[in-house]
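Sample entry (284 residues):
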Amino acid sequence: MFCAILVAMSVNSAAALRQYTAKIEDSDWQLKDETRLLCTLSHKLPGYGEALFSSFASKQLNMEFELDMLRLPKSYGVAAVYSVPPKWMPGQVQRAIADMTIRKQYDGDLPEQAAWTMLTELEKGYWPTIYYQDWYNPYDKVAVGLNASNFAIPYTQFAECVANLLPYSFQDIAYTVLNYEFNNTKLTKYSQKRLAMIGEYLKEDTDLELVLLDGYTDSYGGREINKEVSIRRAVEIKAFFSSMGVAPDRIEVTGHGERRHSSPNINESTRAKNRRVVIRMSKP
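Predicted structure, serialized as tokens:
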């Protein structure tokens, strides 16, 4: 695919190559987002749009590249992405990085491996460049280059941000079951850790649409007392969420007492599974 595109460019001498690349003095790399949930490194492309490298909080290290275009593609196609040596690197050759699928009315993007390759090539001073047939002018080819000038410091900041991302995502904590010790409202050690994880997340993102807290008990004790205990447990979790910045009117509490067991109440081991608060969170 790379060869086909480059050969087509060289054979058709009448084709014009429109280039979009920041001048050396105008090459602007910025850490656009810097939280424990998202890190974004941006690069302005004058007259074209913006190049974005992003990494999100997750169990797995991740990276993606997005080409945010002022004029979205009018048709489908494929772009060739190369690592191009600047003119002050005589004797160096360009290297193929990846094919980028062009989708109608969508920004361009590349997955993790290609995104990391582009970053490491920029770190070495090369200019990742995207070549494709213009979808508005059949006589033009387009080259979009990422200028490596002024890249080093923002990239170091970006790498530090990525290293500080939370090692879990919203999906990992959106449904959580907290369990309690016998005959009180104290969480088990494991559940304390889970709640701490949620707290760390909420310090960064309190934009929750709804939080449902359902409290339950085992069948030990009277039903009315168990109902009160289940409500009290859920209310304490609500207070915790509120202290983290979640609006109280977005938190719904329901106490079920000893109803809706998740495990038989035949011994302490099985009853322990019934002493719980189920957390369900949703975002807009």
